[in-house]
Amino acid sequence: MTSSKTKNRRWTYATLILMLMALISFSVLPVVSSIVQASQGEQTPLVNPETARLENEALGYQLVLEREPDNENALLGLLETRLKQGDLKAAIAPLQRLAQLNPQQSDYAILLAQSQQQLKNYSEALNTYQQIVATNPGDMRALKGMVDLYLEQSRSQDAIELVQNTLNEAIAQESNESASQSVFNLTSLQLLLGEIYTEKQQYDDALVIYNQAIKGDKDDFRPLLAKGMLFREQGKEEEAQSLFKEAILKAPVQYKEQLKDISLQRPQQKSEQ
Predict the structure, then answer these.
(1) How far apart are CA 35 and CA 157, in angstroms?
(2) What gap in Å lies between CA 125 and CA 141, rounded to an integer?
(3) CB-side exposure of 67: number of CA atoms within 13 Å?
(4) How far is CA 102 from CA 14, 43, 64, 214, 240, in A?
(5) Which of 94, 124, 204, 225 is the most exposed place for a label (fewest CB within 10 A)?
(6) Does pLDDT of 233 surpass 80?
(7) CA 208 to chain centre
(8) Does the pLDDT at position 214 exceed 80?
(9) pLDDT of residue 40
């Protein structure tokens, strides 16, 4: 029973994250909340049946929440309806409550922070990410979210300090206990730091980090891929292809085709820029 409930939760979260990413990717404008608008003319504007259905659906969930503010099914229903409407701002309230009701899992808090960031409520998004990291310092989704948030605000130094400090903490923790017991993923942190350096075109710094990651975990394909992408960006396609081939050999089966596609992509020519 518990397993079934967990699977349903994961499916629901996956659905919500896809809906949220669709809003972010395509910049859907919020739907006007009122269905029927007063008209100065003689005719009443036609109401879109789907719009009316979603508004009625949202109203039904809100009525349930007035009686039972912590009803998770109603909160999830309202959240899904708001996302279907493209109304990200109205999705914030149910997301906040779901995050508060589920402090032991960061899924809803991550969704909340991403939504706040998309709405350019940067201070609120940062606060949400920081709360997640305070509970789980090694949560890579929250750390990546904070990095993206800093870079979006041209605060690259803050991004570097965040990841470097976390990396230092991870190294210190690994010296005291086995890597399997650590809450951090050392390689993921190194890749995140390398990504920031690459974004800033500090290629030498990124290369040092990627080499450290390759040396630290010889079975992980990701540092090889990252280093290959760095070489490609620098116009060193021959070196990049060598790394791509090695990464493909070490990658799990489910990633091999995707890596092959990356290796076959036409590199950007500096002369074309």
Answers:
(1) 47
(2) 13
(3) 6
(4) 16, 48, 20, 37, 44
(5) 204
(6) yes
(7) 26
(8) yes
(9) 34
Interatomic CA distance for residues 69 and 230, integer angstroms? 50
Per-residue confidence (pLDDT) for residue 20, from 0 to 100:
56
pLDDT for the residue numbered 48? 75
Closest CA to 182 of 197, 198, 194, 166: 166
Output 264 or 175, whichever has higher pLDDT.
Answer: 264
Q: Kindly state the average pLDDT of the residues 131-141.
A: 92
Over residues 170-194, the mean pLDDT reads 83
Buried b (16+ CB within 10 A) or exposed e, 150-159: bbeeeebebb
Say which CATH topology domain 1-25+52-135 has: 1.25.40
* pLDDT value at 28 more than 50: no
Are 195 and 222 contacting, i.e. CB atoms less than 8 angstroms apart? no
Contacts of 214 (CB under 8 A, 6+ apart): 220, 223, 224, 227
> What span, in angstroms and rounded, lies between the C-alpha atoms of 72 and 74?
5
